[in-house]
Amino acid sequence: MTRPTDEPLLSVRNLKTEFVLDEGTVKAVDDVSFDVHPGEVVGIVGESGCGKSATIKSVLRIIEKPGRISSGSIIFQKPGEQPVDLVTLDQRGKHMRAIRGGDIALIPQEPMAAFSPVHTIGNQLIEAIRLHQKVSKQQARDIAIERLKDVSMPNPEQSLKNYSWELSGGLRQRAMIGMALSCRPSLLIADEPTTAIDVTTQAQVLDLLRKLRQQHNSAIIFITHDLGVIAQLADHVVVMYLGRVMESAPIDDIFHRPQHPYTQALLQSIPTLKTVNRSVLPTIDGSIPHPFTRPAGCPFFNRCKDAMPGTCDRHAPEAVNVSATQLVSCFKFQSDGSMERHK
Amino acid sequence: MLQYIIKRLLLLPLLLFIFTIIAFILIQAPPGDFLTSYIAELAASGSSMDRAQIDALRTLYGLDQPMVIQYFKWLGRLLTGDLGVSLDWQRPISELIGDRLTLTLLLGGGTFIFTWLIAIPIGILSATRKYSFFDYFFTVFNYIGVATPTFMTALVLMWISFKYYGINISGLFSAEYVDAPWSLARTLDLLKHLWLPIVILGMDGTARLARVMRANLLDELNKPYMEMARAKGMSEWRLVMKYPVRLALNPLVSTIGWYLPLIFSGSVIVATVMNLPTIGPMLLRALISQDMYLAGTIILIYMVLAVIGTLISDILLVWLDPRIRMEKTG
Ligand SMILES: Nc1ncnc2c1ncn2[C@@H]1O[C@H](COP(=O)(O)OP(=O)(O)OP(=O)(O)O)[C@@H](O)[C@H]1O
Ligand SMILES: [Mg+2]
Description:
The structure holds two protein chains of two kinds. Chain A is α/β, with parallel strands linked by helices. Helix content of chain A is about 30%, strand content about 20%. Chain A contains twelve helices and twelve strands. The model of chain A is unreliable at about 335-343 (pLDDT under 50). Chain B folds into two domains: about 15-80, no CATH class; about 105-275, MetI-like (MetI-like fold, Orthogonal Bundle), CATH 1.10.3720.10. In chain B, about 75% of the residues lie in helices and about 0% in strands. Chain B is built from 17 helices and no strands. In chain B, helix 7 (about 135-145) crosses helix 9 (about 185-220). The mean pLDDT of chain B is about 85. The interface of A and B includes residues 108 and 166 of A.
């Protein structure tokens, strides 16, 4: 699928987010850039701790102390409206709050913990609706029921009266998605929405997201560490490693023409039909460096099979366009000619 | 819910019966009886009674009968609403404790309200502004509050006000109102005196409650539902009050009931030091002089309050927390 050429809905540029701790500073997001176009599904993949959540929390401006966005811009532009740089807005101010939950909504990783256990689902849904729409309680309730129907919640009226812990994992996540959709956001951010539920339910939730996307044409940022899930849903993939974007490309390129050694290694470590008779899947050697002791240069250097000593461990590679839509951050592709070696 | 409460209420009479037995045993536990201590007191002041007089009094008060009989006589009178006569004061007990009961409740209730009104906001602000000057200030303040015995605070304040301002701040009434009948002027005079013991008695509780509230709230503040509420676009203040504060208050509110008997027993020393006409000092005196019916009545009231308090606590807990509601009533 080719990338839509219209204006991006969200344009993240050189975003840096850090957590300043007593032990040192964690650069959770380090110079991340990517675009999300209207109606597009962008998948962010990467191992645990690589900064996926920190990236989207920065977009939502819900990074709390000791974290902060240290530089970069996050341009959000609703079709037909003025673009705003979310980084310049007051995190707790009215404008940002109107965008949060109204235009950009979050589907969290653990729906169980994301609902308050002592308030009903209805209470929390209606609240979300009334935060952004001037409607009466009764009207909000009707909208809430509507949204729960949208996400195929069996018996929506009853579930409004339920507490989150009375629902099954799948239904809970449905209710969450219903809540995220309550104000018809133009961008939906799903942070590993299927990790806490079983495989069958997972498939249902993915189906639901696919359906919703077709119906309402909302853009989705989908975070996961599961490339299999990405393959089912995403149009464009951003591969992250230790706070940095390694590769960013349309789904086809990622799966068929991966360029970055990390993407390649990642793909080899998932089972496919071709590898199914092999008993051992290749794993990526070594482990992710600790955030406080991250190496200078390319963060993947110490595990990379193509690492070039003297270059990769000294300097950080720039992102390079290997095609119109595919960006790779690796010295193999820097304009100094080292690309030949790869070909 | 209603069924649960009724079930609990049905247990009450049985509990009360057991309590009367315990109260009676407690009172009778020390060796001797009212007359032995009365005689000792007389002897100490230089006078004495002869054998015949003592025996006459013993028969009069029923002290010559076996313990079990004494107990059932007492119980029988209690059931008809007659609390009996204080041996020591020679006045009906109901008359004796009526006024003191009111004042004790007033003082206890006032202290309770004071404690919550001050402690909860301090707890909330300390937790939401963790490690700020405000937080540190109240951390120190709270440690001092917990560490200083209340009677000491009372003594120091009384001494300061007497030494520097020449004001005697003991008691709950000015001299002219102590024995006066209730009137508007007397009530106003009471209010004028009441706030100081309330502050003194409330210090310790306020400090404790603020610390517990701070700790509870800190636990809640980094729960995922906070992030979700922020992501919904709620304003920070509103979401803090609606979700984490509510969840942090739950366990505290459910302890309100336990406070009821404490209102009575917690303040004996301060009440004695400050010469407050409350129940505590009266119980102390009744126990020392082995004034069994008076002591028994007061202890019984304590126990009833404890039961009612626990009941209130349980009902509040069930009412506040749907998870427990399901478990207990579902
Ligand atoms: N509140 C915080 N305080 C300190 N460090 C944090 C905080 N939140 C995240 N980090 C650090 O930032 C880095 C990125 O974390 P993040 O949660 O974004 O990872 P992730 O990619 O979402 O991982 P996962 O797949 O496990 O959710 C990690 O090193 C983490 O330790
Ligand atoms: Mg995460």
